[in-house]
Design goal:
Length: 217
């Protein structure tokens, strides 16, 4: 009640962020409302640097001429695993920062769906860090819900296009699957990449706020 009355975040305990480790911002886009060939159609990540990060997006079907199918889904997963392995090689202690349970749940499902080298699978799962859970444990914000849009928004972050969202993302991907025009498909994929890059930047914005404003900062 005091956080809402004073329009500011209040701290309950230290943030508990795993500081001092390389960070990978990690966010997935998917459609699990029905039986679809690619439940996760975009694997978004970005390795943090002092001056920001470069967003990367692996999209199911992006290199194919037709709509995404199970083969395209497996191909995207394989490319994601290859990229994850390269990141761990370059940054052995990397922590993969995500928001809430979505990424953990779908990583587990894809490990069951397509498999992965045992060492890499274990390393990925052990490296996940849920920033939403950390925030809820340590602070109270004047927000009606703890969705990333609500949280990052109240902390001053703005999405490039306020009309975007998870349902918009699904619709864009379905349009991309349906079109026979490669140029139009790529345009739609690019809009998805920009949207996901904003999600990754929102994660970074929240982390930096917690690190900067938390007790003992």
């Amino acid at each position: 009640a005091r956080a809402h009355a004073e329009h500011r975040g209040l701290w309950k305990r230290p943030h508990g962020l795993p500081l001092g480790r390389p960070r990978v911002w990690f966010d997935l886009e998917g459609d699990h409302s029905a039986e679809v060939p690619a439940p996760i159609y975009l694997w978004g990540l970005g390795v943090d640097r002092e001056d920001g990060f470069e967003a990367e997006a692996i999209v199911a079907g992006v290199d194919r001429e037709g709509p995404a199918d199970v083969a395209a889904d497996r191909e995207a997963w394989t490319r994601f695993l290859d990229r994850a392995a390269a990141i761990f090689e370059a940054h052995p202690g990397a922590v993969w920062v995500h928001y809430d349970q979505y990424e953990r749940v779908w990583l587990e499902r894809y490990l069951a769906r397509h498999g992965a080298p045992a060492g890499l699978a274990r390393r990925l799962m052990d490296s996940l860090f849920d920033l939403c859970a950390s925030l809820k444990r340590s602070a109270v914000l004047p927000v009606p819900s703890y969705s990333i849009k609500r949280v990052a928004g109240v902390l001053g972050f703005s999405w490039s296009d306020i009309g975007t969202g998870s349902q918009w993302s699904v619709a864009q991907y379905e349009k991309a699957r349906a079109t026979a025009d490669p140029a139009e498909r790529e345009r739609l994929f690019e809009s998805l990449r920009r949207y996901n890059a904003d999600d990754l930047a929102a994660l970074r914005h929240l982390w930096r706020w917690m690190e900067r404003e938390g007790p003992g900062a």
